[in-house]
Amino acid sequence: MSQQVINFGGGPAKLPEESSDRPPTLSGPLWLQEIVEQGKLLCGQYVRNRLKRSGVFNRKCGLQRLRTAASLPGGHVVREVFPELASIGKELERMHPKLYSTVSRQASPSPNLSSEKAVGLMLAAVGRELFKCDVTWGKVVSLFAVAGGLGVDCVRQGHPEYLQTLLEAIGETLEEDLAPWIVGNGGWSGLLTHFKPPTNEVSISSFVSLVGAFTATVLVLVFLMRWFGKFAFI
């Protein structure tokens, strides 16, 4: 497969106001599965980008093949959506650096990732709590930012082989909680078409600050469940 370098874009763009116009809803198991696969690819690109920005990316991470997204079905969607996804996620990380760093320490009292299975369970737990009440595009981006933080933890602790488990956990969350909603909101392109150009100055910071605060609450809940034995990472 020929390699395609994805343009990650420049600095954060202005976040437009919400639009009530939605693209036609698509449905069917094949479309849902494509949404899941595109989501895993987007998350993989996000983790890869986060590792690079954190200075810990190397060939042992095993994510080079993600650059061949253009040759996969729906790869053009990934190329179109990822720059905006990365821009919003980067702003989330900038505003809440402690929240999206050393995620494993926040979600578990253990300082180290005990196993590959524990990594997947940890991310799945965050996803369940994050989308327990409702789903928004902001929360979807926030989950990817959490995955990026966990990815950095994995590599820094000498476990780059755990990265694929993160993508599988994202895939499970998409299948169980997100894919139908994403389909109903225009597919992954809905992240771009969900908003119209602003009529006044609305910065991306005013939006992601609310998302970051909610995510902080989610991580605290996960920590408390782990601490009191209601949730166990094996």
UniProtKB/TrEMBL annotation:
Tell me the membrane topology, using the record's own terms: Single-pass membrane protein
Bcl-2 Bcl-2 homology region 1-3 domain mapped to chain residues: 85-188
What GO annotations for molecular function exist for this entry? Answer: BH domain binding
Per the UniProt record, one Pfam family is Bcl-2
Task: Please provide, in alphabetical order, the Gene Ontology terms of the cellular component aspect for this entry.
Answer: mitochondrial outer membrane
Q: Which top-level group of life is the source organism from?
A: Eukaryota
The regions listed as transmembrane in this protein's record are 207-228
What is one GO biological process annotated to this record?
A: release of cytochrome c from mitochondria
- Stated family: Belongs to the Bcl-2 family.
Cite the PANTHER family for this sequence: BCL-2 RELATED, BCL-2-RELATED OVARIAN KILLER PROTEIN
Stated name of the protein: Bcl-2 Bcl-2 homology region 1-3 domain-containing protein
Instruction: List the source organism.
Output: Timema cristinae
Taxonomic lineage per UniProt?
A: Eukaryota, Metazoa, Ecdysozoa, Arthropoda, Hexapoda
